[in-house]
DNA sequence: TGTTATTTCGCAACATTATTGCTTATATGG
DNA sequence: CCATATAAGCAATAATGTTGCGAAATAACA
């Protein structure tokens, strides 16, 4: 995995990305006005950013509470054997569970994987843990932290670090 | 904070939400075809879902690597005193840092807060930690886990649990 | 610094898409 | 089984996105 080639972006591109990060529902006209451009070059820039893969995808964020999904859990998982096969199998299983919003392979002695899962309630979580996670081969340790308050939750990146 | 009143949604609403979750860039026409509806009732349903707050917002997801943001870190933070003032101050500070994508107040003895932050590299992380996080009053313990691989990363909720 | 080449802009025309009014159909409840 | 309410589809309208092209600005080079 070679070092990613950085695209050359000017301030206008960054302003576009910044605006879209926080409000993906903006129309091209609104976006154009926000960044001080007429609609046509604005649209062309967005197309370029999509073609370059800098804009990965659009997501629609739903209200979990209003859908009866009241429990979010952060799970730390450790594996007994660190073989590529175990890891591949674990990742494949985990990726197939709709409850899993995030799964990262991380450094650290306490855990190999960090997961964020969403379920309706404790019962649902117990079921998920016992019937799905702990049944995956190689899972040796599980530690759960329950989310009490969501202070920050966004996909927005710190674009202030990006060179122009 | 009383129990959230669940909206009554039929299968069509759920199909709309499911489609939009994974592809917020769908046009209303594409969405209508996906869920087997003509464009007008489809548009009206989406408007209702937005008005009801079930659709919270649209986000545009960017490629961190292509922007030179190569390091994602999960930070566990513990506080020395669990007073509301300390917590409020911490949360206010944390919410103002663009590097912070997520911050949750969680249960557990190891940590009070779990953060996910994005920075360009180790240097940037060190700077963030020393000049921002550890300077917040009350922060007594910090443990960092570095993300090596992103297995799953989505905002999509498990709508299979939602009653129709 | 003058000149050329390249890029990006904005206008206007065109194409596509979203939205609204209204009628018809489909459920719901008495 | 009829009355009422809810949602669907069609067609017209409104709004929005997109493209070609000439002008302007910017950058590159002599």
TrEMBL record, chains A, B:
Coiled coil: none annotated. It comes from the Bacteria. Keywords: DNA-binding, Transcription, Transcription regulation. Residues 9-70 form the HTH asnC-type domain. SMART domains: HTH_ASNC. This is Transcriptional regulator. It comes from Alcanivorax jadensis T9.
């Amino acid at each position: 995995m070679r070092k990613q080639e950085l695209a050359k972006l000017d301030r206008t591109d960054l302003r576009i990305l910044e605006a879209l990060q926080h409000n993906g529902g903006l129309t091209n006209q609104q976006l154009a006005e926000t960044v001080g451009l007429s609609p046509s070059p604005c649209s062309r820039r967005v197309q370029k950013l999509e073609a370059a893969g800098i804009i990965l995808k659009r997501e629609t964020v739903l209200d979990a509470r209003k859908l009866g999904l009241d429990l979010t859990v952060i799970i730390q998982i450790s594996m007994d054997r660190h073989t590529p096969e175990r890891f591949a199998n674990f990742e494949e299983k985990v990726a197939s569970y709709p409850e899993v919003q995030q799964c990262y392979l991380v450094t650290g002695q306490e855990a190999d994987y960090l997961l964020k899962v969403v379920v309706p309630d404790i019962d649902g979580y117990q079921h998920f843990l016992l019937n799905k996670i702990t049944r995956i081969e190689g899972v040796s340790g599980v530690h759960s932290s329950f989310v009490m308050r969501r202070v920050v939750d966004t996909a927005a990146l710190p674009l202030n670090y990006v060179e122009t």
